């Protein structure tokens, strides 16, 4: 009996769409004594007042009837509105703009003005000034949390191919506070620690070495080279170009500079490789591509290399010291959740700090 | 320049050497810097008032200079070299009878007399994180640092401290509890001293008692407490830690009264207004926030350009300017209170006298009814 009911409800739906009323309605009326009023629904959009959709006991049928009811109501409402608008003609009020998250964004007061002298001075003398004044070249040490498993190890190896002058070392259960002085002595400028949880990399600590800030990120959506579709051949050892999108606030500037200082200054355009850090709604998307200019206007890109997403958890002044260090920014969950306010990006000004290429080629909106 | 400096109610020093005057009425920070070239060596480590009338601000810089800034004229008037870079940064600055008292990270406290190059030196230990002056007895100074407990010195007798605090007893594993005094404050109208430590403890010492151990000890949070301030009421203390959590603690029992929210980065300095229930905080997130202690909401939030090692000073002129800025709120409060009083009388007159028994019965019956309904629903569900 149940299958017949389902069939009958489907038939009813078809009847509504095709508007064949009489024959099928009669058949349905014989089969279902429960819903005599539904016959009317095929012809007239208004339900009689005694009947309500919630009285139908069958969940599937009730859902169907409710959906139909909603569609009908919406259709009636839109028709009415369109008629009113046509009737008014020129006097009609302008169409309201729908609310989107991008529309409702709160302007972040910490957005950096490109001409701000104080910020320029601050950045001219901060911990990255040695890199940006071309006094040092980056040398990166990549390690993991203790006893990493396959995926994390492969991720580290692939990161090492992307970042020039980087070395992967096994952690051996050593404390970071002891590793850091040794790295400084050997001339490393960055320490990357990839944290692993349940065989999957889920965290990244990026520590700028002489004295620099330590950023702690949450890593998600790691795709290794094997898992990429339509990827190109392995990246070569040429220095890639770096693109940093949407790091506009003061905090965004600091993080953007941290990423920029990972790569050597002069990109080798022969290699045609580019690393992109794209910030959107406080998530930083990392992609690595190889490009080729087919003619002046058209470019082809191939994604190589791993891709992952980062979200900043905290920025600490000084080298890694989670207990006694001072935090410049900490992600606090207790504050009321607002998708609208973001810390790294403000939509009014978009700046690209480094890199030569076109923007918006990878992420179509 | 002079006009700007007179309007400012809060003074903040920054890491690049700029002195910022903040006008809360205009919600703006004005920069005052001595020279066109700035450097990190001029980082302002300490700020203090030059005199009782709060017309001069003294800045202690990282390269050992102490600059004087006049708030009325809006310019830097004097610079004095009081120390070398290798001794460490300034951790405290005070003025005693026209002599300058400075302390550095390496533990040396020096008294620089006006006009002469003689200094009286006190060795306050191997590290001093903070030195503060007793506002009531201005020749008394307290120091504390890492593995260096609280010591109160009398500048007229610099040989031995007036009061040396003893560390608390060994903990439950019989291990020595590490000491790290980050900030201290003298409680007005008494001899007591409140300190906050890098091991998230807040301790109260009383030199009047023979007990050298803390009279009260409480913990707050899990991160080092970096700043402390005493509000006008003698009962509570406001503390801030490296994660940007600020709280008001009650000193009678040692419990947290409430927390002040809004800071995203570590707190560097807190200052309570001497008479109004307001506290100004600045930290690594480059904002100056003024919270009201009554409802713990943010009253003012001003963006400062550069960060870190910001010290704030609140002044008495803060008060007068505040009254001008927020006369509306004050009047509003009074008006509201009047309304409430008047409103209450009317309400009382209009209400009928209700006996207690009836209300109790009503509550009881309601309770029974609800309970009975619930039981009935449950039974129905069970049957199904």
From TrEMBL, chain A:
Transmembrane regions: none
GO molecular function: rRNA primary transcript binding
Localization (cell): Nucleus, Nucleolus
One term under GO cellular component: nucleolus
Pfam families: Brix
Domain Brix span(s) in chain numbering: 138-321
Keywords carried by this UniProt record: Ribosome biogenesis, rRNA processing
Region (Disordered): 1-55, 71-99
UniProt main location, coarse: nucleus
Basic residues bias (residue ranges): 10-20, 71-83
Annotated GO biological process: maturation of 5.8S rRNA; maturation of LSU-rRNA
Function comment: May be required for ribosome biogenesis.
Record-given protein name: Ribosome production factor 1
From TrEMBL, chain B:
GO cellular component terms listed in the entry, alphabetical order: nucleolus; preribosome, large subunit precursor
A Pfam family recorded for this sequence: WD40
Localisation: Nucleus, Nucleolus
Gene3D superfamilies referenced in this protein's UniProt entry, alphabetically: YVTN repeat-like/Quinoprotein amine dehydrogenase
Main localization (coarse): nucleus
Quaternary structure note: Isoform 1 interacts (through WDR repeats) with NVL; the interaction is independent of RNA or pre-60S ribosome particles. Isoform 2 does not interact with NVL. Interacts with MTREX; the interaction dissociation in a late stage of rRNA synthesis is required for appropriate maturation of pre-60S particles and depends on the ATPase activity of NVL.
Protein name: WD repeat-containing protein 74
Species this protein is from: Scleropages formosus (Asian bonytongue)
Designated gene of the protein: WDR74
């Amino acid at each position: 009996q149940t299958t017949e009911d389902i069939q009958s409800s489907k038939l009813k739906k078809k009847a509504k769409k095709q508007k064949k009323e009489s024959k099928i309605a009669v058949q349905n009326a014989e089969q279902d004594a429960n819903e005599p009023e539904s016959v009317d629904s095929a012809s007239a959009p208004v339900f009689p007042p005694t009947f309500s959709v919630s009285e139908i006991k069958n969940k599937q049928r009730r859902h169907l009837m409710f959906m139909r009811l909603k569609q009908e109501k919406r259709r009636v409402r839109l028709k009415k509105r369109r008629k009113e608008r046509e009737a008014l003609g020129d006097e009609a009020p302008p169409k309201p703009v729908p609310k989107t998250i991008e529309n409702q964004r709160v302007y972040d007061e910490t957005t950096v003005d490109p001409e701000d002298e104080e910020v320029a001075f601050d950045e001219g003398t901060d911990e990255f000034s040695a890199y940006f004044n071309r006094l040092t070249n980056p040398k990166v040490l990549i390690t993991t949390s203790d006893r990493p498993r396959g995926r994390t190890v492969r991720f580290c190896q692939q990161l090492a191919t992307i970042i020039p002058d980087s070395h992967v070392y096994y952690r051996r259960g050593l404390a970071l506070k002891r590793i850091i002085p040794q790295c400084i002595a050997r001339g490393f400028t960055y320490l990357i620690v990839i944290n692993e949880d349940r065989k999957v990399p889920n965290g990244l600590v990026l520590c700028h070495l002489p004295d620099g800030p330590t950023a702690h990120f949450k890593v998600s959506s790691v795709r290794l080279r094997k898992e990429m579709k339509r990827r190109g051949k392995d990246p070569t050892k040429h220095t890639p170009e770096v693109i940093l999108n949407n790091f506009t606030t003061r905090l965004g500037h600091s993080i953007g500079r941290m990423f920029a200082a990972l790569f050597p200054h002069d990109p080798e355009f022969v290699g045609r490789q580019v690393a992109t850090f794209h910030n959107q709604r406080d998530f930083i998307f990392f992609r690595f591509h190889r490009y080729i200019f087919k003619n002046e206007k058209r470019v082809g890109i191939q994604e190589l290399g791993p891709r992952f997403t980062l979200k900043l958890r905290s920025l600490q002044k000084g080298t890694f010291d989670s207990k006694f260090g001072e935090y410049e920014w900490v992600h606090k969950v207790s504050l009321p959740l607002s998708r609208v306010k973001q810390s790294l990006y403000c939509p009014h000004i978009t700046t690209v700090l480094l890199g030569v290429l076109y923007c918006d080629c990878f992420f179509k909106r | 320049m002079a006009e700007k400096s007179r309007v400012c109610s809060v003074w903040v020093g920054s890491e690049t050497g700029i002195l910022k005057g903040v006008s809360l009425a205009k919600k703006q920070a004005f920069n005052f810097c001595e020279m066109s070239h700035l450097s990190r060596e001029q980082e302002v480590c300490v700020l203090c008032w030059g005199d009782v009338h709060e017309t001069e601000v003294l800045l202690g810089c990282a390269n050992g200079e102490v600059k004087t800034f006049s708030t009325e004229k809006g310019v830097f008037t004097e610079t004095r070299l009081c120390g070398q870079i290798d001794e460490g940064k300034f951790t405290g600055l005070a003025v005693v009878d026209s002599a300058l008292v400075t302390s550095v990270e390496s533990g040396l406290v020096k008294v620089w007399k006006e006009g002469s190059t003689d200094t009286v030196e006190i060795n306050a230990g191997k590290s001093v994180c903070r030195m503060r002056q007793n506002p009531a007895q201005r020749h008394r100074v307290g120091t504390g640092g890492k593995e260096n407990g609280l010591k109160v010195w009398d500048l007229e007798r610099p040989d031995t401290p007036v009061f040396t605090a003893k560390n608390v007893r060994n903990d439950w594993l019989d291990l020595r509890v590490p000491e790290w005094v980050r900030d201290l404050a003298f409680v007005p109208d008494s001899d007591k001293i409140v300190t906050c430590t890098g091991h998230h403890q807040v301790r109260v010492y009383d030199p009047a008692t023979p007990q050298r151990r803390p009279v009260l000890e409480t913990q707050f949070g899990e991160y080092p407490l970096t700043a402390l301030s005493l509000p006008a009421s003698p009962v509570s203390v406001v503390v801030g830690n490296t994660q940007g959590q600020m709280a008001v603690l009650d000193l009678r029992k040692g419990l947290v009264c409430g927390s002040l929210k809004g800071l995203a980065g570590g707190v560097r300095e807190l200052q309570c207004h001497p008479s109004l229930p307001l506290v100004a905080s600045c930290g690594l997130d480059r904002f100056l926030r003024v919270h009201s202690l009554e409802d713990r909401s943010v009253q003012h939030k001003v963006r400062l350009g550069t960060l870190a090692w910001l010290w704030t000073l609140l002044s008495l002129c803060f008060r007068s300017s505040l009254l001008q800025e927020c006369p509306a709120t004050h009047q509003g409060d009074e008006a509201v209170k009047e309304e409430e009083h008047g409103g209450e009388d009317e309400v009382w007159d209009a209400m009928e006298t209700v006996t207690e028994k009836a209300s109790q019965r009503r509550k009881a019956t309601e309770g029974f009814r609800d309970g009975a309904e619930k039981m009935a629903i449950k039974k129905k569900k069970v049957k199904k």
